[in-house]
Each structure stands twice: as structure tokens, then as C-alpha cells.
Amino acid sequence: MNDRFFKLQAHNSSVKTEVIAGCTTFLATMYIIVVNPGILRETGMPFSGVLTATVLVSAFSSIAMGLYANNPIVLAPGMGINAFFAYSVVLGMGVSWQTALGAVFWSGIIFIVLSVFNVRTAIVRAIPKQLRYAIASGIGLFIATIGFMNAHFIVSNPATVIGLGELNAMTITFLIGLAIMAILVALRVRGALILGIAFTTILAIPIGRLWGDASSISPTGVTTLVTWQGLFSAPNFSVFFQLDFIGSLKLAMWPVIFAFLFTDMFDSLSTFIGVAEAADLLDQDGEPRHIKQSLIVDGVSTTISGLFGTSSGTSYIESATGIEEGGRTGLTAVVAGLLFIPFMFFSPLLAIVPSIATAPALVLVGVFMMKPVQKINWGEMDDAIPALLALILIPLTYSITQGIIWGFLSWTAIKLVTGKTGEISITLIFIDLFAILALVV
Predict the structure, then answer these.
(1) Is the pLDDT of residue 223 over 50?
(2) What is residue 334's predicted lDDT score, i.e. its pLDDT?
(3) For every residue of the chain, which 3-state class applies, written as one string?
(4) What does residue 101 show for φ and ψ, rounded to 5 degrees?
(5) Cα–Cα nearest to 197, from 64, 79, 47, 360
(6) Number of CB atoms found within 10 A of residue 54's CB
(7) Does the global pTM surpass 0.85?
(8) What's the pLDDT score for residue 224?
(9) Model pLDDT, residue 213
């Protein structure tokens, strides 16, 4: 861990700067320790088991990114892909979570192969920037929508498809928590999301005891109140190696594996490219620095996610917070990764956090991910129309993959018709063919 290994001087950094940056990144990303198990437990997976898997995937992947790729980028089970795992695959398609984990594993294996042979690098260059911005923003809208729905602030409505929920103890608690969290974020308080989650958890304690109905706080009926079981406990490895290797390779599961691969690929690529561009972590050719090594780590993160028992690991846009503090090398990622490890032993404390407390965090993560929307060229219709389709179809179809598919297909069709064939690469044509395959299989 010396200067020569991370090349601190070459990047105008120091150990102190990198440690501070690592701590900052950890505070910005640690909400995933609570939010990811909160989402995946709706599939029937045990909260504490997913928490252990989340911590280990985050720690191992981030440390690997620092040591192997020397980039200040933290990895953890991705927001958006975890929602896809829970709501689209398990709850929507009726696939068991064990089989879904198997699909995550195999998508990771393919991911690594594509990265080793530089196929993913070619894909990076083939994705139009306008669609990169739209996809990232669409995922933000999707995450925010899930937050509002988990709080029952937005509910289904037969007359209008969706509508405003009833103003009751739960929704009022959600709104107060959202307001507090938003203020902390606006004031740039370190760890604003996790502080807001803790505050909302405390605020939710009277629900079901003093007033209101705590029977459910999510569309699938996860109960709000959890019995206090202490502060510490041994890590729960109950979901480790529970994936269904064989069942996930059945012909009927191939579209699911492809969907995981497709969704994870473009989710991680858009995030990685965004962080690299924002922090000027670029090589002499203007491409993201150490991209091959970084993408291999990303693929390994997805693979071990399936083995350990969580949805796919991916690069985190919140890494930009540590970069803003001066982090420029892999030491930042190593520090952040190490800080995850102690939280394996706090699962009883974290398990008392209800969905109503993490819902405001989902909304604000959606806000963070909407930043690229300002870069979309709304003045050119051949750019704006595909961007809007990708942006809006992700939340409206409740599927990241559908938004990506229609964004790519519409981009290609419009560019062909308008004679702008120079903006369509051969790689993009192949992506379109896989997109069509995903629709018909």
C-alpha cells in the first residue's frame, strides 16, 4: 500500500487525501447495506443473509478495483439491478430467488469473458452518449418510483393506472423522512442518506403501536415492525452458495440470463463512464482509465454476487463524492471497501430498518442519477426521441431492459431514416440484433 503501488505522486495525491476520499465514498454508498437487503427480502430472502452478502460483495469488489485497476471506484450490489432482480424476475416472472441467483452467476461469467476479450470495451464506444445519459436518468426515475411506491405515496389506481396514496401515518412519516434527508443532502452533510434512514426508522417506531396500521409498508406486505434482537450477531451465511446452477441454465432461463447481462452491462458501463468523465479519469485516447481491468473487476463482482447471495455488483456513481474530495487512485476504493466489513456484525441493528425508512433514500438516489439528463440534446429530435423513450420506458414498464432496448432500436431506426448512418456503428447493429432477440425469446 505504498506510493509506488498506487502511484500517488503521479496523480497529485497523498495517503491522507485518499483515506479521506475513501471514507467519504463509503459514507455516500453505505446506504446499500440497508437498502439492498430491504429490496431483496421481498423475494423471500432473509434480510440478515442478504446483508452479509451485500457487505462481502461490496468489500471484496471495491478492494479488487483498487488493487487491480487502481481506480477510486467503489462497487456494490447495484441499485436498479436489485429492483430488476426482485420485482421483474422473481416477483414478476415467478422465478425462485435461488434460480435468479444462478442467472446472476452465469451472466457474470459471460461478463468476464466479454471483458477479457475487450468486447465490452467495444460496446462502450458503440453506445451513443445521448443514450448513455438517458439510460442513467431513466434508472434514476425507476429507483425514485420504487421509493414512492414502497412508501405507498404512489399506489395503483384502476382509473388512472397510478395515483396518489392515502395521507396517513405511514405516508406522513415518509414525507417527514424525505424532507429531513433532502435538507441534509442539500447541506452536503456527510452520510446524509444513512442519517436520514436512521431518523426515519426512529420516527416510524410509533406506527402500529400508537397509531396507524403497520401490517404492510410495501406492495408485497413486508411488515414494518421488527422485534429488537440485540445489537450484534454473527454473520448470516444462509444465502451463500444457494444458487441453482443447473436450473438457471434451462432454456426458459436464457432470456433471464441475457436480461441480467444486458441490464448489468449497460448499468455499469453508464455509471463507470459517467464517473470517469466527471473526474477526468481518462487515458491519452480519452477513454476511461484502465477500462479493461475495471470491467473485469465489475464482471467478477457480478459472479461472486450470485455465489454469495445477492443481485449483481456494479460500479457506483457515488464514487464521485470521494473523487470530489481528491481521491484519484485505487487506495480510495481499498479504504472504502475495508470500511464495509465491520457491518457484517450489525445485522440485528440494521434489520429493524423498515421499508418506509429506506424509501426516501431511494427517491434521493433517483435525484442523484438524474444529473445526466441535462446533457441530452433536446434540440435535435433524432437525438431527443430515442433518449426520451429510454428515459421514460424504464420506469413506466418497470423494466430497465425494456427502456434500453427501445432506446437503441429507435436510435438506429431514426438515424437510418434521416440519413445519419455515420452515427450507427457495426457494434450497435449487433446490439440491436440482441435487443430484438430479447423481445422475441
Answers:
(1) no
(2) 96
(3) CCHHHHCCHHHCCCHHHHHHHHHHHHHHHCCHHHHHHHHHHHHCCCHHHHHHHHHHHHHHHHHHHHHHHCCCCCEEECCCHHHHHHHHHHHHHCCCHHHHHHHHHHHHHHHHHHHHCCHHHHHHHHCCHHHHHHHHHHHHHHHHHHHHHHCCCEEEECCCEEEECCCCHHHHHHHHHHHHHHHHHHCCCCCHHHHHHHHHHHHCCCECCCECCCCCCCCCCCCCCCCCCCCCCCCCCCCCCCCCCCHHHCHHHHHHHHHHHHHHHHHHHHHHHHHHHHCCCECCCCCECCHHHHHHHHHHHHHHHHHHCCCCEEECCCHHHHHHCCCCCHHHHHHHHHHHHHHHHHHHHHHCCCHHHHHHHHHHHHHHHCHHHHHCCCCCHHHHHHHHHHHHHHHHCCCHHHHHHHHHHHHHHHHHHCCCHHHCCHHHHHHHHHHHHHHHC
(4) -65, -40
(5) 360
(6) 29
(7) no
(8) 43
(9) 53
Report the residue count for the chain. Answer: 441
Q: Which residues contact 212 (CB under 8 A, 6 or more apart)?
A: 168, 169, 170, 206
388 grid coordinates: 426520451
pLDDT: which is higher, 179 or 368 = 179
Asked if 273 and 133 count as a contact pair (C-beta separation under 8 A), the reply is no
Contacts with 149 (C-beta within 8 Å, 6 or more apart), sequence order: 155, 219
Structure confidence at residue 295 as a pLDDT band (50, 70, 90)? confident
Residues 6+ apart with CB under 8 A from 230: 348, 349
pLDDT in tens, 90-109: 988 889 999 999 999 999 99
Give the three cell numbers for residue 352: 429493524
Tell me: pLDDT of 388 over 50. Answer: yes
In angstroms, rounded to a whole number, what is the distance separating the alpha carbons of residues 178 and 174?
Answer: 6
Can you give the pLDDT at residue 267?
A: 66
Residue 152's alpha-carbon distances to 162, 170, 301, 394, 426, in angstroms, are 11, 8, 33, 20, 45
Mean pLDDT (whole number) for 68-74: 91
